[in-house]
Design a protein that fits this description.
The protein is mostly beta strands and about 180 residues long. It is built from one helix and 15 strands, in the order ββββββαβββββββββ. It has one helix spanning about 45, and strands at about 5-10, 10, 15, 30, 35, 40, 50-55, 65-70, 85-90, 95-105, 110-120, 120-135, 135-150, 155-160, 165-175. The strands form four sheets. The protein has a six-stranded antiparallel sheet with strand order 3-6-9-14-11-12. Strands 7-8-15-10-13 form a five-stranded antiparallel sheet. A two-stranded antiparallel sheet has the order 1-2.
Length: about 180
C-alpha cells in the first residue's frame, strides 16, 4: 500500500493510488495494490485496523467488482478518523450534475454528501445525500440526486463516511 495524499499533524489522513488514464473510476475496476485508483481512502482507520477496505469480486452492480468496507470500530462524528473515501473532480460553476451510485449495507450507518470547495472558503457548499442513516439490510439500493455547483466553484467532491461498525459495498458511482 502506498501512503500518499493529504497529511495532517499525526501523519497521512488519506491514501491514494493514481492512474490518469483510469478517469473517474466509479465502478472501481482499475486498481493498484488492492486499492481503487483515483480515490482517497481515509487512512487512520485502516492503519489502526478499525476498518478494512478491499475490492470485492463476489459483489458488483456494474463491472466485475465493488468497493467494500468492513468497519470494526467507528467514530460517530465521521471525518477522516472514520472509515470512508472521497474524490474531487472538476466541474462547471452553476451547472447541475446528476449523481448516482449503488450501496449495499449490512449494519453500518452511512454519511454521504456531494459538495464544492474552495481553499479560502469554509464551510464548503454541500448537499447531504445520506446523513447518519442505515441504508438497508444487505441488499443493493440505488441512490440518485442532482447537485448544482455554486457560482465561482469549480469542483465536486463525492465523499462517503461510515459511522457505525458493519459492512458496506459501493459501486457504479457516476457524476
Amino acid at each position: 500500500m502506498v501512503v500518499a495524499g493529504v497529511f495532517g499533524g499525526h501523519g497521512p489522513m488519506s491514501i491514494r493510488q493514481t492512474d490518469k488514464s483510469a478517469g473517474f473510476n466509479g465502478s472501481f475496476e482499475i486498481e493498484k495494490d488492492g486499492l481503487p485508483v483515483n480515490w482517497y481512502i481515509h487512512y487512520p482507520p485502516i492503519k489502526s485496523k478499525d476498518a478494512e477496505v478491499s475490492l470485492d469480486t463476489t459483489e458488483a452492480v456494474e463491472g466485475r467488482q465493488s468497493l467494500k468496507f468492513v468497519v470494526h470500530r467507528a467514530v460517530p462524528g465521521g471525518g477522516w478518523r472514520s472509515a470512508g473515501f472521497f474524490q474531487v473532480v472538476p466541474a462547471k460553476p452553476s451547472h447541475t450534475y446528476k449523481v448516482t451510485f449503488w450501496l449495499k449495507n449490512r449494519g453500518s450507518k452511512v454519511s454521504l454528501f456531494v459538495r464544492s470547495e474552495k481553499p479560502d472558503v469554509s464551510p464548503p457548499a454541500q448537499k447531504m445525500i445520506l446523513g447518519n442513516e442505515e441504508t438497508g439490510t444487505n441488499t443493493w439500493r440505488q441512490f440518485n440526486c442532482e447537485y448544482t455547483v455554486p457560482k465561482d466553484y469549480h469542483n465536486i467532491r463525492f465523499e462517503l463516511g461510515l459511522l457505525r461498525p458493519g459492512v458496506v459495498w459501493i459501486d457504479d458511482v457516476r457524476i
